[in-house]
Amino acid sequence: MQGKRVVVLTGAGISAESGIRTFRDNGGLWEEHRIEDVATPQAWLADPSLVWHFYQRRRRQLQDVEPNPAHVALCELQNGLESMVLITQNVDNLHERGGSSDVIHMHGRLETLRCEATGRHEKRMNSTDFSDDFLLCTCCSTPSRVRPDIVWFGEIPMHMEEIYRAVDACEVFVVVGSSGHVYPAADLVDVARRHGAWTVLVNAEPPLNLDSFDEVHLGKAGELLPGLVRQWLGSEG
Ligand code: OAD
Q: Each residue's pLDDT tens digit in the chain (237 positions)?
């Protein structure tokens, strides 16, 4: 991969070994909720307390989990290559805590909250920010309620222009830990392929879009990625 323009897209599978549950491995339920009951704008309108409590639990969970060898391996890859863009569908902060910088969070972030009135994002990770009571913004003269800074189903993912620019131009496109169910993320591998990129998958199980990959490594990311990254950096084999 040395000298190539590389893009890596990660999904929930990369954080599974850190103890954060994936979305689609539990019979359609995510932490005992149907996804549509907690991850849609309609859910926020219908029952904001349920949605708020759900995401506050996810935000508090960040304090109890640690990056795993897969996050650290991707940081080493980024440091060892001239050009690597890291895109994640994950809303946790484990890539950053594994050492990666400039991570593009296409589905939002748990660390930040968004003012409902202005749309402004703000990092809110002080001990007073984990309450089950609604929180208020710090940007409006009459403070407004904040919402989770998450892209819910039916909303448009963030940073898509920057993402398409990187994917269109890449020569190697790597996906780690994603089931290929959610668009437009699931389609990025085909965009890369159409532009001539070599496509690589590291995933526990075959995803829906398996046929889009030129090179497939089935297994746990935390076990496979450290060795693959050494190979990709040319420091082994
Ligand atoms: P999924 O839960 O759909 O898929 C996780 C994938 O990771 C599955 O294919 C698993 O086989 C694989 N996996 C599990 N453990 C693994 C491990 N240790 N190593 C490698 N792979 C492993 O998660 P995503 O594809 O990320 O959206 O889901 C996409 C989006 O759907 C999420 O970003 C989220 C959700 O709704 C939002 O929150 C907006």
A: 989 999 999 999 999 999 998 887 666 566 678 888 899 999 999 999 999 999 999 999 999 999 999 999 999 999 999 999 999 999 999 999 999 999 999 999 999 999 999 999 999 999 999 999 999 999 999 999 999 999 999 999 999 999 999 999 999 999 999 999 999 999 999 999 999 999 999 999 999 999 999 999 999 999 999 999 999 999 754
Identify the CA nearest to 211 among candidates 188, 183, 189, 185.
189
Which residue lies with its CA nearest to atom 9 of ligand 1?
179
Say whether 107 is catalytic.
yes
* Ligand 1 lined by 177 (C-beta under 6 Å): yes
Whether this prediction's pTM lies above 0.85 is answered by yes
Q: Quick one: which atom of ligand 1 is closest to the CA of 180?
A: 25
| Rounded Cα gap, residues 30 and 13, in angstroms | 14
With a 6 Å cutoff on the Cβ, whether 204 touches ligand 1 is yes
> Distance between CA atoms of 5 and 83, rounded to whole angstroms?
5
Question: Which of 8, 21, 24 for mutating ligand 1's site (highest number of atoms within 8 Å of CB)?
Answer: 24
Domains within the chain, CATH numbers bracketed: 5-20+67-107+157-234 (3.40.50.1220), 21-64+109-150 (3.30.1600.10)
Going from the C-alpha of 85 to that of each of 63, 188, 211, the distances in angstroms are 26, 13, 23
